[in-house]
Amino acid sequence: MTHNQEVERSIITTYRSKLWSKFIRALKEYKLIEENDKICVCISGGKDSFLMAKLFQELLKHSDFHFECEYLVMNPGYNEKNLNLIKENLADLEIPAKIVETNIFDVANMQESSPCYLCARMRRGALYRIAEELGCNKIALGHHYDDVIETTLMNMLNTGSIQTMLPKLLSDNYKGMQLIRPLYLIREKDILAWVNYNNLKFIACACKLTERSENDIEASKRKATKQLIKDLKAYNINVEKNIFSAPANINLNMVLGYKIEDKYNDFNSIFEEKKNKNLTEK
User: Fold this and answer.
1) Which residues are within 8 A (CB) of 189 and not within 5 positions of it... i.e. 6 or more apart?
2) Cross-strand partners of 264
3) How many CB atoms lie within 10 A of CB 44?
4) Exposed, middle or buried, 38 (CB in 10 Å: 0-12/13-18/19+)?
5) Are 19 and 8 in contact (CB under 8 A)?
6) 13, 43: one domain
7) Contacts of 30 by beta carbon, 8 Å cutoff, 6+ apart
8) Do residues 45 and 206 lie in contact, with contact meaning Cβ atoms separated by under 8 Å?
9) Domain match, 161 and 234 both
10) What one-character DSSP code corresponds to residue 176?
């Protein structure tokens, strides 16, 4: 049995309940894949996106409807060592990915403030463009459960808003294109366990901005949020589950305001509407 075969077997045996079942549950619960979809599976080089690629390969073997996958590595400017590691993993795990070269790191590095933010925006834009060129109608990213709860808490603490990382999004600029997150229900600790079990090695932060990222607001706040969530578990062991569930349990009768599309509904207007409705009904 080859190493790749062992890796694939571990997904549907040893880690069936932690990885495979949660992957399938997310696809069904959020309706992430439909018949005849062509999905651009984006591989950044890290553990999450490589797992996602393997899950899609496994799904193609068992799916009861037709869909296609294009595996994509968009190289934003990785150094030779990291790019070689990505190529080695693609070969070892038998993932037929296309590697597309860009100069995003170099451009973002010219930015004095928030280079990570600029880099993320440029990478997202390039992914949409390349996916469209490949004839895809969906882009799959490797964000997992822990990314979701960290983003939710960061928005509450740093922007004073209740916003989460959604399981799928419609593109504003590319008609018909959707962004999906198939690892939405998978915990990071289980991905790490799968990586260690199979003696896999992936790149972590491989950008040229690593030295600066510790001082970048977004990077430092996400790191602090990770630790805060760990600390909050001492207060309530279910805190992770509760943060994840909160955006799906918003009671509009008990909020000071909410926004739909570009329209903001403030407390006073909501209250007046209720009052008038109450008087009318009487």
Assistant:
1) none
2) 259
3) 21
4) middle
5) no
6) yes
7) 167, 168, 180, 184
8) yes
9) yes
10) T
User: What's the rounded Cα separation, in Å, for the pair 181 and 108?
Assistant: 25
DSSP, res 38: E
Q: In whole angstroms, give the CA distance from residue 234 to residue 277.
A: 45
Encoding tokens for residue 62? 């068992």
- For residue 261, the enclosing domain spans 254-282
Q: Which of 213, 238, 211, 209 is nearest to 223 (CA)?
A: 213
Q: What is the pTM of this model?
A: 0.91
Report the CATH number at residue 70: 3.40.50.620
Tokens of 222: 């996400």
pLDDT tens over the chain, length 282 residues: 899 999 999 999 999 999 999 999 999 999 999 999 999 999 999 999 999 999 999 999 999 999 999 999 999 989 899 999 999 999 999 999 999 999 888 787 776 666 677 788 888 889 999 999 999 999 999 999 999 999 999 999 999 999 999 999 999 989 999 999 999 999 999 999 999 999 999 998 665 555 444 455 666 788 899 999 999 999 999 999 999 999 999 998 899 999 988 899 999 998 998 899 888 875
The encoded tokens of residue 214 equal 């510790």
Name the residue among 219, 266, 202 with its Cα closest to residue 73.
202
DSSP 184: T
Same structural domain, 72 and 128:
yes
How many domains does the chain fold into? 2
CB atoms within 10 A of CB 245: 12
Amino acid at 43: I
Residues 158 and 279 grouped into a single domain? no
